[in-house]
Write a structure and sequence with these properties.
The complex is a heterodimer. Chain A is mostly beta strands. Helix content of chain A is 12%, strand content 40%. In chain A, the strands form three sheets. A six-stranded antiparallel beta sheet of chain A has the order 2-1-8-9-10-7. A two-stranded antiparallel ribbon of chain A has the order 3-6. In chain A, strands 4-5 form a two-stranded antiparallel sheet. Chain A is globular and about 45 Å long. By secondary structure, chain B is mainly alpha-helical. Classes of the chains: A mainly beta, B mainly alpha. The A-B interface holds A 1-2, 25, 27-30, 32-35, 37, 87, 138, 163-166, 170 and B 10-19, 39-41, 44-45, 47.
């Protein structure tokens, strides 16, 4: 997988996703292609909007990228296996956003969470000036909760689970 | 396997494309001469195929004929 050919001294990160209700996610190879692929989601300019994408109004971008996954299994009783190193897996992202029942992106994510089987391409865009580095991945949404505590603004929390090995880096 | 078929398989895959490329044997000479525009899925596929289909450089060993000294026996 190609790594970005840019170094951003400081950047602001934002989250984007395909806007269609039943999108066709980018193929694994196209997740690393900026022109005509990732740009359809994040736009051709920094913090723009692609024709098939929408910004997700998250409060902060959690850690993203890959980690070394492990598999462990349990058996009846109290025994548990050693951790077995497996393929490095993309990191699941648990995201908090201010709950706005009129926001199209959040409503789509809630719908995806109800379904559980909608594959969608998400993009984390790191933007500095006019430079953009994009981390694109395919994922499914699980866990969508609304916290409507009266002492604060309503929040929603959801988790995006990336599909194995379906990620790529690109830049403008 | 035809190179075009291998590229098509990688470009359209939703799996681990590194693993897909590892299992594909293509003609090394055809691969060595293949090109693709940068920032395209085809270029990514070619890079992966070249990773696992290494073209061995052809080494030509030339025999150097040694001159036989003339027979000077009289």
């Amino acid at each position: 997988m190609a790594i970005p050919a840019k170094v951003l001294p400081g950047f602001a990160a934002s989250l984007w996703m395909q806007s269609a209700a039943t999108p066709t996610p980018l193929t694994t190879a196209n997740l690393s292609v900026w022109v005509g692929q990732v740009t359809t989601i994040v736009g051709t300019v920094a913090n723009g909007t692609g024709v098939a994408g929408v910004a997700v109004p998250v409060e902060a971008i959690p850690a993203f990228g890959m980690d070394d996954a492990v598999a462990s299994f349990g058996v009846a009783g109290s025994r548990q296996s050693d951790k077995i190193p497996v393929q490095a897996a993309p990191t699941s992202m648990t995201i908090t956003a201010a709950w706005n029942p009129s926001d199209a992106a959040l409503l789509q994510i809630r719908s995806d969470a109800y379904s559980g089987v909608v594959d969608r391409t998400f993009v984390v865009a790191a933007v500095e000036s006019t430079n953009t580095v994009a981390y694109a991945f395919n994922g499914r949404v699980g866990q969508f909760q609304i916290d409507a505590a009266p002492g604060a603004e309503a929040k929603c929390t959801f988790t995006v689970h990336p599909r194995g090995n379906q990620f790529g880096w690109s830049n403008n | 396997m035809k190179l075009s078929d291998a590229i098509e398989a990688i470009v359209t895959s939703y799996g681990d494309i590194d693993l897909v490329a590892r299992g594909m044997a293509v003609d090394a000479d055809e691969l060595a001469n293949a090109t693709a525009a940068p920032d395209t899925a085809e270029a990514i596929a070619l890079a992966l195929l070249k990773k696992y289909n290494v073209t061995a450089p052809v080494v030509v060993i030339e025999e150097v004929a040694q001159e036989v000294p003339p027979d000077t026996t009289e």
